Amino acid sequence: VIGTLVVVKRFHNANRSSWIGDVMKPCLSPRALDLHRASSASTPIVRALPKSKDYGEDPRVRRKNLLRSLLVSPISIALTAIPVPAAVGEITAAANRGPQKKLFAYTMANGMQLYMDTVAEEKSRYFDGFNQRLRNLKQNNNGRPIRVLEIGIGAGANMKYFHDLGTDILLTGLDPNPFMESYARAQGEANDIPLQFVLADGMKIPFPDDTFDAVVSTLVLCSVEDVTRTLKEISRVVRPGGIFGFWEHVSAPSSKPILQTAQRLLDPLQQTLADGCHLTRNTLSSIQDSGCFVDVEYENFNFKSLGVLGPHVAG
Questions:
Q1: Which of 3-17, 183-197, 206-220, 238-252 has the lowest average pLDDT?
Q2: Is the pLDDT of residue 7 over 50?
Q3: Which of 103, 141, 194, 261 is 20 to 30 A from 279, alpha carbon to alpha carbon?
Q4: Judging by DSSP bridges, how do beta strands 238-249 and 52-55 pair with one another?
């Protein structure tokens, strides 16, 4: 953690930027950003046949990005691992987690800009396809608004993608961190999306069977304690004929052994610093093997500039 803070401070001095909100930006060179933008494709994201996309193929930046990622991936949330000292030398674990969760919520709301910029084009395409499926569901709902549950809504980063749906959507956001609520509600208001915020986690969703038309999770299944149990809960609360949308960072494929090794080495640290986030989960296999869904359509991506966080699957 001390080493991370030193790196953060050096980036801050060099760039005069917000040392929490923009801490990851200096880690990606302008050339690497240009390479990413130039390599972005224009094909739809959701399809029945899988296809893999790599971003940042230039070998001159590949090794540099991988090495940087060893430091970058936990930087924006590293402060959540700092224990809060007790005034008299004694403090309970529960009390200690409160300030950490508050800081984690702040960092997720203000420290994810590099990630969001990197995946923006593909994620926008993904939600265009997802929202079209929601509109198709509405046609079969006799005009009733679509009931959508977002698992792990966090700071509300996906609200902007639902903006065009307007009154066609009734959004419920589920999150176990109470400090996320104010950020999520602010994003809802900014995008004219009424939000019902529920303090709970995905392993025990407090709603009856068949409550929702759709469920969506982005960067969530990497951190839940039990993926299979969470998927079963999602399947339970989605009505027959409903849909489950996912966008997750995952383990690198076996064809990328160096990246796989880096993920395995950093996984324990990532779990500690990033609120239980795993780098090595094969989320797609978990979804396919769960037996919860009739059909799984997906596409793989690898955003190389994100290093160990680069491999993604969406569907």
A1: 3-17
A2: no
A3: 103
A4: unpaired
What CA–CA distances, in Å, run from 207 to 172, 174, 230? 11, 11, 13
In whole angstroms, give the CA distance from residue 106 to residue 244: 28
Q: Can you tell me the distance from the alpha carbon of 280 to that of 264, in angstroms, rounded to the nearest whole number?
A: 6
DSSP helix/strand/coil, 180: helix
Measure CA 70 to chain center: 19
Q: Residue 146 belongs to what H/E stretch?
A: strand 146-151
* DSSP-assigned states of every residue in 33-62: HHHHHHH---S-S--SS--EEEE---HHHH
Tell which residue, 173, 168, 176, has the closest CA to residue 188. Answer: 173
Torsion over CA: 287, 203, 312, 163 (sign): positive
Of residues 186, 187, 156, the one with CA closest to residue 173: 156
Question: What does DSSP say about strands 52-55 and 299-303: parallel, antiparallel, or unpaired?
Answer: parallel
Alpha-carbon distance of 214 to 238, in angstroms, equals 6
Query: Is 25 within 8 Å of 15 (Cβ atoms)?
Result: yes
